[in-house]
């Protein structure tokens, strides 16, 4: 990795595995640039999911309780509540 490159959000080997798992032809190739773009896309998706889940939880249980009650931890249910809208936005 060059000095001016940011570290990957998701390991490139994992991204490659996710992509190639459903390829129909074994000779399909993925460029490094494609992996970098996909890494940024996944990073944006995950950050947006967490942000929306936190904001939704604050609305649902109140700001003080959402930040203090459980140490700011999200539950699976917090993400499940918004996944439909999130997927349509992406």
UniProtKB/TrEMBL annotation:
Keywords: DNA damage, DNA repair, DNA-binding, Nucleus. Belongs to the CENP-X/MHF2 family. Signal peptide: none annotated. GO terms for molecular function: DNA binding; protein heterodimerization activity. PANTHER family: CENTROMERE PROTEIN X. It is found in: Nucleus. Transmembrane segments: none annotated. It comes from the Eukaryota. CDD domains: HFD_CENP-X. GO terms for cellular component: FANCM-MHF complex. The keyword Kinase does not apply. Its main location: nucleus. This is Centromere protein X. The lineage of its organism: Eukaryota, Fungi, Dikarya, Ascomycota, Pezizomycotina. GO terms for biological process: DNA repair; kinetochore assembly; replication fork processing; resolution of meiotic recombination intermediates.
